[in-house]
Predict the structure.
Amino acid sequence: MQQTRKKTILKAAVCLVLLAAALIGLRNQQYLLTLLNFVCMYMISVSGLDILFGYSGQISLGHAAFYASGAYTSALLTTKLGVPVWLAIPAACLVSLALGIIVALPASKLIHHFLALLTISVGQLVYILISRASFTNAMTGIRSIPNIPLFGYELKSKYFFLIFMILMVALFLIIKQCIIHSRVGRAFQAIRENPVAAGGIGINVQKYKIMAFAISAVYTGFAGAMYAHFVGFISPETFTSAQSVMFMTMLLFGGMGSFSGPLIGAAIVTFLNETLQVLGSYRMMVYGAFILAVLLFLPHGISGLIDIVKQSLFKNRGKEDRHADA
Amino acid sequence: MVISLIIGALMIGSVYGMLALGYSLIYSASGLMTFTQGQLLMIGAFLGMQFYKVWGLPFLAAFLLTVLIMFLFGMLLEKCLIRVLLNKGAVSIYIVLSTIGISIILPNLAQALWGSQTIQVPSIFGVTTVKILGVSVQPESLLVIAVGLIAMVLLHLFMTKSRFGISMRAAAMDPLAASSLGINVSLTTGLTWAIAAALAGGIGVLLGPVYGVSTGMGDIIGNKGFAGAVIGGYGNMYGAIAGSLLLGFVETFVAGYITTTYKDFVSFFLLIIVMIFLPRGLFKAKVYDSD
Amino acid sequence: MLTLDQATIQFGGLTAVDHVSFTVEKGQIFGVIGPNGAGKTTLFNLVSGVHKLTSGSIRFLDKEISGLEPYRIAESGIARTYQNINLFSNLSVLENVKIGRHIQSRSGLAAAIFRTPAQRREEAAIQDKCMELLTFMGLESKADLPAKNLSYGEQRRLEIARAMASEPQLLLLDEPAAGMNSTEKVELTEMIRNIRNMGITILLVEHDMKLVMKVTDLITVLNFGKMIALDTPQKVQNNPEVISAYLGGGIDA
């Protein structure tokens, strides 16, 4: 036990040093910095989806709705009502939380195909709302969203925004791990594995399903708020069902029900997405192909593949928490 | 106004109904769900356009050829993807995800073959409107309704009278018992995917002259068809049609009298309301986790 | 402790459990036997809340429990195992038992996020208690394996361990010996007695007659959903109606 802890600390230290070195090297790479900021947002958002789908077994194909609720709440509060950014972000999380609970109330009773449909519909509803309503400026979107102020400075440079985002990713990941390895996290996994047995042992299945939905919505809502403040401009095009599919692709590709899966998935898919810009709208085809390839050949995603390689290299039993069903 | 709205509602309801029938067939035969129906409709529309407009085949020939191709395509989809995943022991949500993967790929495939512009298809009848009870109606809308009606009757006869249809229903009720009675379960489920694809593709061909053909035409329609199936009671053939017609009427009349901007909002809202308060639909379906 | 009064459930036209009444006293090992399809598992599903009664009542510790959600019934002190094993199969053996501690622990979401001292103490206590239970069931060496990697007999023992983790007052065992070899059955008999000696009342459905006759204090016999006998093991064995029921339904014991 003591030794694994030392190992973890050592690993974390190595990662930190590498990260710092990379950050210094990237100081002036504006394009890469932009991408990395997006990667961080997706990492948070997809980790949220992982809590929902990877750990509690509830699918969502409408997570763009929560991304939108976070982005629009923060953007509207800061631009139209002049609310300070540091109040708008928690408000964005709260609105996403509320939306999560509202969706989860009926969703927690449905079996997964219907859940898929319900979440798709919610995604559509939110998209239609933000793209038609006048208070969201319809298709024009919202401009001049203020940046995040920190200690009197605004995080105007992408470089400092990235450092801030990395800290946020770390925070949200730590929270995720704390939840997963607690009584609440065990209840989530019990429900994913076997809802009947979970109820039989005293877990209030509906309550925990709603809780997972709410947590997931907060993660994605926060990521959405970060997106709004980073880019400074939002419009409905960002929050289509394609965005929801992208979140799901990242999760599947990285590997669900794991610590590293969402991180790997968010990073790889974002960069692939950029390299595939030349393909224009054919990029979506690559998502589709990704999904099929993962389902057919890589049921545990890339992180599952890494585990298999590790295991065959070291020949010791992996103790990673990996449970995604194939 | 009312009459043209009714005809419009019947037409779009029939379109949803054809898709909903496919969803319901697949679900009742194998307990699986698909999200590709809308994209299959789109592919059907493009194929029909290719045969009818580009190659100059008679419309009937273009229609039948498309239906045949889509039938085979559905069978192929089941054999090469769904069956493979099932044999790997994939849980049902993975099947859903795989059909979503397909539904992302198909529009891009269509775009590669036919481009991203909406393509207009010439009228089938040579006249643009006919008068019914004093209102001008596009004859193609009437054709959609007629074909929808015929397909429903044929499917009903097929499921209740033919040996194949009966064994299909048996396979749906109890796959194990059915296979022990010598019914080829794999073949019958393959057939449901094929019929679903043929229905979607066939209605797609008919929609070409009405709306034009574009890669995105199936996205919303596909979800609406699904909504129709859910509203009617998922897995119930007759419910699927009833639910789809209801949805067609609600949305047409909302668009006609209240708001066109939020027309789609109203249909999805209706769907969500049904899922919350009447989750088994108008005709009972299994939707709860604990059943 | 547990009282069924005219408990009845119908599925469609079929009456699966038909006006069954009996009382299980505290500290008893109470057996339920009967030919296949007699309604034994349905009876269990009624007590544990999976199915709802059509008519009649089920009282536990003087409280009506029929109609409650399964998790409520578990909270009131009834735990169960399943005939066709219902483990959390991709989770480790230890995690399975830890989930069994759910109703015996309190820490919520906030405590988990902030890792409060109380939450950490509770986690440590859960860990100790669960390892103790695994040792009791002879599974301590398998604690870190996924539950699905266990043998059939081990999985059945794990289900018992998980149920025990919730510290129930009444334990429902649904065919715990199914799929076990004779050595395992002997061990199981011993375990069931030990569990009773810890003060836990046991309701047991079992096909293995030898085991049932050995451990139970009282047996009720079901046939086509109806109760045809309620007696001690010796008397039940010699009851002509029971014998004919088994002959008619085919002896599987």
Notes: Chains C and B do not touch (no CB pair under 8 Å). Chain C has two domains: 2-77+168-249, 91-159. The beta strands of chain C are 2-11, 14-24, 29-33, 55-60, 63-64, 78-80, 170-174, 201-205, 218-223, 226-231.
